[in-house]
Design a protein that fits this description.
By secondary structure, this protein is of the alpha/beta class. The protein has a single domain (about 20-260), classed as NAD(P)-binding Rossmann-like Domain (Rossmann fold), CATH 3.40.50.720. The chain contains 9 helices and 7 strands; from the N terminus they run E-H-E-H-E-H-E-H-E-H-H-E-H-H-H-E. Strand 2, helix 2 (about 50-60) and strand 3 form a beta-alpha-beta unit. It comes from Cajanus cajan (Pigeon pea).
């Protein structure tokens, strides 16, 4: 019996679901936003300071659509009031329940100090964005994402939580806090059908990774990766895309390390 051809109008996996991607004006966040849009999602592009790049991402998503499928909202995730405003703006923009949060916003100290040499100011800045920001976004999502199916909370952390490399004390600690919180959140959301997971990239070729590194430092990192290359933003985005779909409903409270064997 011949196979029945699929209809050309078959809906995409994330058709018309609304996704907020923080830190999506560049780097991994940008690639995630573009990938979720390709799966049919409507996107809220969030940025803190780079308005031009954020609008460029939205324009790319909206280029072939009769109606806007991406909007841009400025918000500093370390400020809970701005995070609330981000979610409010998302609901107003699409007049729809919110389905997906991907928290990609993050910072590091490009000097890569030892714990002994880390300043309190650097520590506080890293924890404000990486840990407090993830908390503020996850808390808002836990209270506002659609219940009964399709709700996804996806927090980006780092494979350094497993690798524990010198020079990343505050950064790794901030992400370790997020991983613990996500596992607890998944249990607390019992009965909602909202899942909570972390994706922990390894070394990815982004501005954040290259900041403060010499070629020799980069080469040493590449040498530790069995696949012999730095990760690309698309390597992470495809995993996020899977977690956002219904196919990943049984993946909950997990840390997915996407690092080419780095650890």
């Amino acid at each position: 019996m011949a196979a029945i051809p699929q209809s050309q109008s078959q809906p995409l996996p994330l058709q018309d679901r609304v996704a907020i991607v923080t830190g999506s004006s560049r780097g991994i966040g940008r690639e995630i936003a573009l990938h979720l849009a390709s799966l049919g999602a409507r996107l809220v592009i969030n940025y803190t300071s780079d308005s031009a790049q954020a609008h460029a991402v939205a324009a790319q998503i909206n280029a072939n659509s009769a109606t806007p499928r991406a909007v841009v909202v400025q918000a500093d995730v370390s400020d809970p009031a701005q995070v609330k405003s981000l979610f409010d703006s998302a609901q107003r923009a699409f007049d729809s329940p919110l389905h997906i949060l991907v928290n990609s916003a993050g910072v590091n100290d490009g000097a890569y100090p030892s714990v002994a040499d880390t300043t309190v100011e650097s520590f506080d800045r890293i924890f404000a964005v990486n840990a407090r920001g993830a908390f503020a976004c996850a808390r808002e999502a836990a209270n506002r994402l659609k219940r009964g199916g399709g709700g996804r909370i996806i927090l980006l952390t780092t494979s350094l939580v497993a690798a524990l490399k010198p020079g990343y004390g505050a950064y790794t600690a901030s992400k370790a806090a997020v991983e613990a919180m996500a596992k607890i959140l998944a249990k607390e959301l019992k009965g909602t059908q909202i899942t909570a997971n972390c994706v922990a990239p390894g070394p990815i070729a982004t501005e954040l990774f290259f900041e403060g590194k010499t070629k020799e430092m980069v080469d040493r990192v590449v040498d530790t990766i069995p696949l012999g290359r730095l990760g690309e933003t698309k390597d992470v985005a495809s995993v996020i895309g899977f977690l956002a779909t219904d196919a990943a409903e049984w993946v909950n409270g997990q840390i997915l390390r996407v690092n080419g064997g780095f650890v």
